[in-house]
Amino acid sequence: MRTLIVLLVMLMPLSALAQSADELYQKALKSIENDQYKEAIELLNKVVESKPKDKEVYNKRGFARNQLGNFYGAIGDYNIALEIDSTYADALLNRGEAKFNLGDDYGALEDYDKAIKYEPKSAQAYTSRAFAKYNLEDLEGAYFDFSKAIEMDPNDADKYFNRGVIKAELEEYISAIDDYNKALSLDDSDPDIYNYRAVAKFNIDQVEEAMKDYNKAIEMDTTDPIKYENRALAKSTLEDYEGALADYDKSIELFDEDPDTYNLRGVVKYNLENHEGAIEDYSKAIELDPYNPVYYDNRALSKVAIQDYKGAIRDYSYSIELFPTDPETFHQRGLAKISKGDKYDGCLDLNTAVELGSEDAKDSIKEHCK
């Protein structure tokens, strides 16, 4: 009897310890559900002490670390889980996510491939692999994976939206619109879907329809400069230059460090014959990005419009230094030189433009270089 009592005394702490670890693990899961990741990690640290061979514990701790941006720590946990079970698909998927977050798309792709091998019906694995393939510019592969994910989970608006983005990049705009329509039928609360659908419509010359979507997107989200810039481009196409100007103004108000927005606003001001304002915008674009020849070309056009031929020639020359094989820049610099009174050098530029393939320059030679 004494021996039995001793055994019971010895076993009770072990039983209590196991129960305590299970309780701590459940508390950790609840903390993860509530986005309390630091608390979850502290609890899981204690669980690991009593369950050093439990792959689930390491996987969950890795997840919590990943959510806190500790990607290397997360990978360490996933590695331990996979040492315990190399076929553990969830840990492979999660390790892929951590590698993806570190910018290691190739490494992430390897893990996603293995996750799919061991769990071929995981919609999340296909979705994650699609993003990695997209980053690696494998658009066809991303298209396939998003399609597989949709087969497994056909009621997720995000999957249709993401596949629509891929289709649009592949210039399959009509099919992209179909995906955006499906996404909106599942969830019409995302202004980005309206914005992207508008871009697709714009690219198939449905500009008026695109405008409706841009208006809806901006009505839902007034803080995104890209949406205003996109609508401005549509307004410019419709020759509503004043409306386009207002949208570019708003876009720049929200984000004043994008050189292309200044350039596009400069084009609108050029069309409104506000050449001084256009030059100011082109100059700002050049200040932000001094290596884009288009900005110099555009500023030169406005300088020609106000008969600042010397300034225009200087800008065309900068452009040629950056892109020495553009026939139109030689053509326009030649015309600026002729307007300035330098016919000989101007005609040399026109001849260079012809050699580079400009048909328009041939007509200019006939007119100015007899």
From TrEMBL:
Query: What's in the GO CC field?
Result: cell outer membrane
Q: Which Pfam families match?
A: TPR_1, TPR_11, TPR_8
> Which biological process annotations from GO are given for this protein?
receptor-mediated virion attachment to host cell
Keywords in UniProt for this one?
Repeat, Signal, TPR repeat
Any keyword Repeat?
Answer: yes
Signal peptide residues are 1-18
Q: Which residues form a coiled coil?
A: none
Q: List residue spans for each TPR repeat.
A: 21-54, 89-122, 123-156, 157-190, 191-224, 259-292
- UniProt KW Signal keyword: yes
Membrane-spanning residues? none
Q: Know the name of this protein?
A: TPR repeat protein
In its UniProt entry, the species of origin is given as Fulvivirga imtechensis AK7
